Amino acid sequence: MAARQVYSIREAAANNLKRFAEEFGPEWAMQHLVPEVLDMVTNPHYLHMMMVLRAISLMAPVMGSEITCSNFLPVVAEASKDRVPNVKLNVAKLMQSLISIVDHSVVEKTIRQRLVDLNEDPDVDVRYFANQVLRSIDDAAVAQS
Question: pTM to 2 decimals?
Fold first, then answer.
């Protein structure tokens, strides 16, 4: 029960960050929210990283491609090397949503490489989701040609 409550609190917090970004705009969010969210990555507890990833997943569509590429993607890429499988699993899922936000060149240069690395992870679930996202990238490339 306690774990569910903690998840609900983290989810509510991430949703509130998204709502603030929508209400006050990307510039305001960059000044007031994003630095605070990204500072949480320095905390060694994996739940802080999970919160950052969830916040990024909700805020990236609001913040747009430029901010996502320059501020969020480096954090996500670094999180793909985390030792906690659940973090890497969530990175793979998050990368799926970032594909529609960033330019194709970023997908090919950064996201694909991280997914290829995750596709070789010892954890079966991490490999599965990384493979699913790689397939969706390939399917989209075929559809565009």
Answer: 0.91
Q: Distance of CA 54 to CAs 14, 60, 109, 140, 145, Å? A: 6, 10, 23, 24, 33
Which positions ≥6 away from 56 have C-beta within 8 Å?
37, 72, 75, 76, 94
**Tokens 């090397």 -> residue:** 81
DSSP 43: S
Share of the chain above pLDDT 70, in %: 99
H-assigned helices in the chain: 2-24, 26-32, 34-39, 46-63, 65-67, 73-79, 85-98, 104-106, 112-118, 124-144
- pLDDT bracket for residue 1 (50, 70, 90): low
Among residues 65, 139, 63, 53, which one has the least CA distance to residue 100?
65
- What number is the average pLDDT over the span 68-85? 96
Structure tokens at 143: 């559809």
Contact assessment for residue 63 and residue 21, using Cβ atoms and an 8 Å cutoff = yes
